[in-house]
Amino acid sequence: MTQAAQALADAASRPALEAIVDLDRYPIHQPENPLTMALVAQCRAELDAVGCCCVRNFVRPEAIARMLAEAERLKPQAFWSETTNNPYMTKDDPSLPEDHPKRIFNKRNNGFINSDILEETSDLQAAYDSDEMLRFVSECLGVAPIYRWADPLGRNPYSVMEPGHEFAWHFDGNEFTVSILVQGAEKGGLFEYCPDLRTPEDENLEAVTKVLRGDRGPVRVLDLQPGDLQIFKGRFSMHRVTPIEGNRTRYIALPTYVLDPHSVNRPERAKQFYGRAEPIHYEREAQRPDRLLD
Ligand SMILES: O=C(O)CCC(=O)C(=O)O
Ligand SMILES: [Fe+2]
Fold it and tell me: Where exactly are the transmembrane stretches of this chain (predicted)?
């Protein structure tokens, strides 16, 4: 088969959006449909009120089953971390006072199935490539235009967490993340976040330190179920995953969106999260989307 014919065959075997998303209940391919308009209004209201929105059973169970099978097949190729990190994924800076959040490190163990090894017929990849999904996320956020992320490793990975693993408080390198839980922990493994804890203009260091030291004031908890779609502003809302309890592995799909189609992770963050930095991470290091600590 020629390369072009192979590409066509691969595209043909990719699941269509209607095989992935429950379009009967959530017809996001029809933006003018009253059901979709009501859904977008609901998501916007939730994002305004609590900094996050959740659409229950957005992804069909058959698609979740295929994603789980894909993640289990790819798990041996995951990049595993057993480390500690500060919220900015930077190295320690002993020149700063001890209560500066750049100096406060928490435990993180997880594996990332990086975006560049997803399979040709991946439901996650197909959903991420869908313009309907991009438009829907943009409308829910009330931000346009947004783009798929240029980061070759971090743009739509799976995160894998085994019993005992936890994921430290941090901010993301990209502005917006969609989470689709593929398989939850038996217990624990909850997503905790602090809505809009910082803004592009204000790091709000005091509040960040307080949360790292145990303040629960701004913390909200979301108990995602498999198939639920969550949209949150990970660059501004500090978040973590609580320890995985019980015997089951937690798998979550994490498609990401950004304001600047050119930006990618800093090399240091790419290495800490995804195990390596590529030439693109160094080439674009100077072109950060904002002036945040990262
Ligand atoms: O596993 C989750 O729910 C969130 C993971 C996360 O925050 C990240 O990969 O940056
Ligand atoms: Fe994150």
Answer: none
Residue 7 has pLDDT above 70, yes or no: no
Is residue 2 assigned to a domain? no
pLDDT digit string, tens, across residues 161-202: 999 999 999 999 999 999 999 999 999 999 999 999 999 999
The mean pLDDT of 104-132, rounded to a whole number, is: 97
Residue from 130, 23, 19, 11 nearest 66 by CA: 19
For the cut 70, the answer to whether the pLDDT of residue 276 exceeds it is yes
DSSP H stretches of helix in 51-169:
61-74, 123-129, 131-141
The neighbour count for residue 81, using CB atoms within 10 Å, is: 19
Residue 172 CB–ligand 1 contact under 6 Å: yes
pLDDT band at 13 (very low <50, low <70, confident <90, very high): confident
Q: Is 250 inside any structural domain?
A: yes
Q: Which residues have C-beta under 5 Å from ligand 2, the single-atom ion?
A: 172, 234
Residue 47 CB-half CA count within 13 A: 23
Give the range of the structural domain holding residue 217, as residue numbers without chain letter: 21-283
Strand (E) or helix (H) holding 111: strand 106-113
The domain spanning residue 149 has which CATH number? 2.60.120.620
Confidence of residue 8 (pLDDT cuts 50, 70, 90): low
Counting ligand 1 atoms within 8 A of each CB, the residue from 171, 180, 244, 252 with the most, and so the one to mutate, is 252
Residue 50 lies inside a defined structural domain of this protein: yes
Domain assignment of residue 146, yes or no = yes
Number of domains in the chain: 1
**Pocket flag, ligand 1, residue 191 (CB < 6 Å):** yes
